[in-house]
Amino acid sequence: MDPSDLPTVFHDLTPVPQDDGPHPVCAIAYSDDFVRAYDYLRAALRSDELSERSLRLTALCLKLNPANYTVWHYRRRILSALSSLEDERKPIDEEGAFDPKLVEFDLAMAAKLGGGNPKNYQIWYHRRALLEPSFEKAAAKEDGDVMKAARVELSYVGTVLREDSKNYHAWSHRQWINRTLDSPPLWSEEKEYTHTLISEDPRNNSAWNQRWFVTHSGMHVPLDADGALSECQYALKAAALDPHNESPWRYLIGLVKEQDKVDGGRVLADLVELCQREIVTMKNRLEKDNKGMTKPVACPNMLAAYADILEMQKSKRSLVEASAIVHCLAVEHDIIRRKYWLMKEKQLQAEVDRDGLC
Fold first, then answer.
1. What is the distance in angstroms between the CA of the first residue and the CA of the last residue of the chain?
2. Which of 22-26's residues contact partners 24+ apart within 8 Å by CB, and which partners?
């Protein structure tokens, strides 16, 4: 639909101009096409018209302004009404399931608009609102059609993340899909997806964050012993490839620290022992590489992780060593965070001075 077609298509409606009041302070200089399209949109809204022509009108208005929430909301009401016409058993309700063909068409339209607006919240919300009824109904049921739709949507999100791996809206949408369907095959595929991204760019902290989300199935519950061991080994392997990369170290420390919440403490002790052994190996290798260098290359991220591991050992000897490491970080290796490390040193020293440590 073209703006010039509107008077003919909506011959029975009287355009409703935008009311800026009698004395607008700073009237916006809209284009003629914009004014005409939105004048007819206000007329359609006033009459609450839920028809195919009003659907085409919303597409035109969204092309002119993809961030107009009111137009997106009106469009979903129209889609719901048209879906109910396809199936008389469906109520005219925005929360009801939409006709699959209409959903497919609108997802394609949203993708086209989203190409130049990848961080437009209204577009991402529209995609979710279209898929939500069928996804929530099929949650944990492995419905074939829904699973196919989910994989298509995840593929689309993947193309967006290829352009911008930090797009929060895309990651949030991806997490919503996995959490809503809660499907073991999808969780497994998503874990492999994060591995692919991390392999391509080990410093992609968004991919590391997604891996945490996936391994925990979107819940705030510590991993079991096998899961924690497997993920710690994964992080240590990534850290060994580039000890200067902060992402695997923070992922590793998060895994170990959450085991403090698990009863018994045996898992924590085993993980701390594993991490200490691997870090010492990396530390020795780096020292060997630095031998003979005029200015040895420090590795603050590895040292910070080592200090965390030593602190979790909770022995007097390990706390003294951790205190020495954070002091070096404060005065030599990571002076931009000097005040933090000095505070940390003070805390560790207080632990050392406590009674009962051996």
1. 79
2. none
Contact between 9 and 1 under an 8 Å Cβ cutoff? The reply is: yes
Distances in Å between the Cα of 141 and the Cα atoms of 73, 180, 185, 296, 351 are: 29, 11, 12, 57, 51
Read off the tokens for 93: 């309700």
CA atoms within 13 A on the CB side of 279: 25
Query: Is position 119 annotated as part of the catalytic site?
Result: yes
Enumerate residues 6+ apart whose C-beta is below 8 A from 143: none
| Cα 341–Cα 279–Cα 276 angle in degrees, nearest 5 | 90
Count of CB atoms within 10 A of residue 154's CB?
17
Tokens of 328: 């070096």
How distant, in Å, are the alpha carbons of 35, 39, 124, 307, 334 from that of 26? 16, 19, 31, 59, 51
DSSP 136-199: HHTTTTT-HHHHHHHHHHHHHHHHHHHH-TT-HHHHHHHHHHHHHH--HHHHHHHHHHHHHHHH
87 band by pLDDT with thresholds 50, 70 and 90: low
User: How many C-alpha atoms does 187 have within 13 Å on its Cβ side?
Assistant: 16
How many beta carbons lie within 10 A of that of residue 166, not counting itself?
Answer: 11
Selection from 105, 148, 153, 96 nearest residue 128 by Cα:
153
Q: Which amino acid is at 319?
A: L
Task: Estimate to the nearest angstrom the gap between the alpha carbon of 333 and the chain centroid.
Answer: 32
Catalytic residue among 119, 191, 257, 316: 119
pLDDT digits (tens, 9 = 90+) for 235-271: 999 999 999 999 999 999 999 999 987 865 788 999 9
Amino acid in position 18: Q
Closest CA to 59 of 109, 124, 125: 109
pTM, rounded to two decimals? 0.90
Half-sphere exposure of 120 (CA within 13 A, CB side): 21
Q: Find where tokens 């359609």 sit.
A: 44
Whole-number Å distance between alpha carbons of 67 and 79: 19
Residue given tokens 């009237």 in the structure block: 27
Structure tokens, 110: 């949203």
